[in-house]
From TrEMBL:
InterPro entries cross-referenced by the UniProt entry: FmdA_AmdA, TAT_signal
Name by which UniProt lists this protein: Acetamidase/formamidase family protein
Superkingdom of the organism of origin: Bacteria
The species this protein was found in: Polaromonas jejuensis
Lineage of source species: Bacteria, Pseudomonadati, Pseudomonadota, Betaproteobacteria, Burkholderiales
Pfam families linked: FmdA_AmdA (PF03069)
Length: 384
């Protein structure tokens, strides 16, 4: 429902209709599906119920709230919130400071790309959560993710999984219908949209700015296909306040993202609920969807990334369920699945950093009893 439609409904019921009231009411209406429905394209049990939404904070993208390329620990807060509050990002930027325009040729875009050696992502933030301290965990719940009307996929020379096979750069644009449900790739091929953010991060450890291209336990460039509306991501806190960032909006992405890019876009309506869990730790980024628990691992090779994802999931699940680690190892061999999140063999880049290879381990929820499912969920959730 648009804000205009929401306002009309509110007026008919005698409800307050100021912008703050409208955003809070809309947020409440949107958070409910997180607890009660599956995300588009998914089916299965709902994820754990979110706390009732608190205030809604609006963070516009502008020169004060967006840092291109870097996650900067010295950046001024874009918003300071309480646990359970929602942040509405009404106009996120496309990569490279929102400079690309629909229909630009690759040659026209190339000078823009080269102006940002620290990375392409228009990272918005940081959001500060009151009382967040190192040793805590932040649950990042995607409430709403509606992309703008256009996107692109591109592959410069020397990038992707098989750079030696392509000697010319590639660039393809897409226009979405108003319902943002699907898009034509070519005549006869249609892709379902599953929009979400490719980058979520708490501020990485240390006092130096870190490229958003990189990733680790703090998140960063995850590019996880499953992080759509109705899902949650758990990241540890390394700095007071957490200092949360997001960026790199996607409309469509395949596992592996083999030509280097997804269907790159921006969001005209992005709403995230941040929930603080005190004194809870996680050794790797963990995600929950209506159907799976997911752990993300990184490494120099896909082999290393798979091993790190598996070990992290074994550590968490065995401790949370009081199961022998060997039993959990066997369980993943029988019922788990492992997917390439991002795989590339770059031969050159305009950026200063090279991202790790990424794998994600998936544990299906439908193998768990209600009691074990609750134990696994609650092992991460201790509200402030």
């Amino acid at each position: 429902m648009s804000l205009d439609a929401f306002e009309g409904a509110a007026q008919s019921l005698g409800m307050p209709t100021g912008r703050r009231h409208l955003l809070r009411g809309a947020a409440a209406a949107l958070v409910a599906p997180l607890a009660g429905c599956a995300a588009a394209g998914h089916s299965g049990p709902a994820i754990d119920k979110a706390p009732a939404p608190g205030r809604t904070h609006v963070v516009e993208s502008n020169s004060k709230t967006v840092t291109v390329g870097l996650l900067d620990p010295k950046a001024a807060p874009a918003a300071t919130i309480d646990s359970g509050d929602i942040v509405s990002y009404p106009n996120t930027w496309v990569n490279w400071a929102n400079e690309p325009r629909y229909g630009m040729s690759f040659a026209e875009r190339e000078p823009i790309r080269r102006r940002y050696p620290n990375g392409p992502y228009s990272n918005i933030g940081p959001v500060i959560i009151r009382d967040a301290e190192p040793g805590d965990l932040v649950e990042i719940r995607t409430v709403r993710a509606r992309p703008i009307e256009w996107a692109w996929n591109s592959a410069p020379a020397n990038v992707g999984a098989i750079p030696e096979d392509f000697d010319k750069p590639y660039l393809k644009y897409f226009k979405f219908d108003s319902d943002r449900k699907s898009v034509e790739f070519t005549p006869g091929i249609r892709l379902e949209l599953h929009p979400g953010q490719g980058l979520f991060a708490t501020q990485p450890p240390g006092d130096k700015a870190v490229s958003g291209i990189l990733n680790g336990a703090y998140g960063g460039k995850l590019g996880l296909h499953e992080l759509v509306e109705g899902t949650a991501l758990f990241l540890p806190v390394f700095h007071p306040g957490g200092r949360l960032w997001t960026g790199n909006s996607h409309a469509v992405q395949g596992d592996g993202m083999v030509n280097q890019t997804a269907m790159e876009t921006a969001m005209e309506d992005l709403r995230i609920q941040y929930v603080l869990h005190k004194k809870v730790t996680a050794g790797l980024p963990l995600a929950e969807t209506p159907t799976h628990w997911i752990g993300v691992g990184f490494g120099k090779t896909l082999d290393d990334a798979l091993v790190n994802a598996l070990r992290g999931m074994l550590d968490w699940v065995s401790a949370a369920l009081s199961m022998d680690r060997a039993d959990v190892y066997a369980l993943f061999s029988l019922a788990g699945s492992f997917r390439a999140t991002k795989f590339a063999r770059q031969r050159g880049s305009v950026y200063n950093e090279v991202p790790a290879q990424t794998m994600h381990a998936m544990l299906p929820k439908n193998i768990l009893s209600a009691q074990l499912a609750e134990k696994l969920s609650q092992s991460l959730r201790k509200q402030a």
